[in-house]
Amino acid sequence: MAPITIITAMITTMTTPDGVLLSLLSWFSPGFPVGAFTCSHGLEQAVEAGLVRDADSLGEWIAGILGHGAGFNDGLLFLAAHEAACREDWPALDLVTHWADALRATGELALESSTQGQAFLVAVRQGWPHPWLDAWAGRLPRLQRTASYAVATGLACAAHGVPLEHGLTAFLHAFCVNLISAGVRSVPLGQRAGVTLQAGLQPLLAATVQRILQDRQQPFQERLGACVPMVDWCSFRHETQYTRLYRT
Question: Of 7, 63, 73, 233, whose CB neighbour count within 10 A is largest?
């Protein structure tokens, strides 16, 4: 098959239900080149400090982040980016971009969001090109803002017709799975414990998606809020942690 034929077939497939599913599986796979495996979201320091020491405490830690920390806030940013793009309301998307940068409590958390977002944007524009992605990438330098991972993924899902709930679920699932993987390696835990945690977090993940989708008529910035100060503390401490495997 000639390269141009392959690209045309790929773009056509994107508009079908199977194409949407395949795109989500690709974008949020551990193998997609965003560097998620280098990020622990401060978890490595939480293990060092004894705050996370077994499967139960790891599950509580991730549940807190998902329901009351960056999981919930980034879900709102994903939602706002997706909706702004679907309306083709580019000033609204720029506002989401500004908020996404401002919400990072530490340098490492900002690095985690921006490096993954930029890598995701580069990879998706290469494999799944779309004018909306090109336009946003071109505006970022003028906005003096970075490509937040939550905004980049929300925009890509909107550009390629991924339903909001499906994209949001995949985004938060990937976030949780990456934290579980970091915990399995850092505590350390066995793979079976990681699978049990993944299954156990499913109800909370589904409930968090529904909570994010509620009250969508309310401005997203009025719904933002986090209450996980120990995660921020661990992220600050991780910047000077002597022995570490992760960038964040």
Answer: 73
Q: Distance between CA 79 and CA 217 in Å, rounded?
A: 12
H helices within the chain, ranges in order? 3-14, 17-27, 43-48, 55-68, 70-86, 90-102, 107-127, 131-143, 149-159, 164-186, 191-200, 202-213, 220-223, 229-238
Per-residue pLDDT tens digits for 147-179: 999 999 999 999 999 999 999 999 999 999 999
Q: Which CATH entry fits the domain spanning 37-238: 3.40.50.10490, 3.40.50.970, 3.40.930.10, 1.10.4190.10?
A: 1.10.4190.10
pLDDT at residue 103, rounded to an integer: 92
C-alpha 26/C-alpha 124 separation (Å) is 10
Cβ atoms of residues 164 and 213 within 8 Å: yes
